Amino acid sequence: MDSAVELEDALDRLAELVVSTDSAADLANVRRRIGRRRLRVLVAGEAKRGKSTLINALLGQPLLPMGVTPLTSVATVVRRGSVEQVTAEFRDRRRTKHLLSELPALVTQHGNRDNELHLVEVQVKLADASLPSGVELVDSPGNGSVLRLDHHA
To answer: Which InterPro entries does this UniProt record tie to the protein (predicted)?
Structure first.
């Protein structure tokens, strides 16, 4: 049996057991996330341990800014797209489009000190076959740094 079908069957059985509205909402959220068929890989760790460098190595190109001091100030999501594109998502839910060359001004301490732009995350789409469709790599500010990683739905 296909693993996706098995998962759907398990969710159907679980739905029969759900009695609270909160649990039903949680289950609906799980179904929605599974339906996207997306694998999000969060690269997390202490500050200055090579998270951006690792993602760049996986991509085969120096896409994400790297430096000798803690650099990443905002979570950066890299995924495959039909065209190269950078989208900044703000806490107030605004989204703005940017050039790839503007990425350091959005996601680094040098360009966006302590996330003064109030970004939730920056999304980078690459028209590059080396990144499988449906896979997202997330570069995060270092644990133990003075920066805070914001979470959103």
So the answer is: Dynamin_N (IPR045063), Mitofusin_fam (IPR027094), P-loop_NTPase (IPR027417)
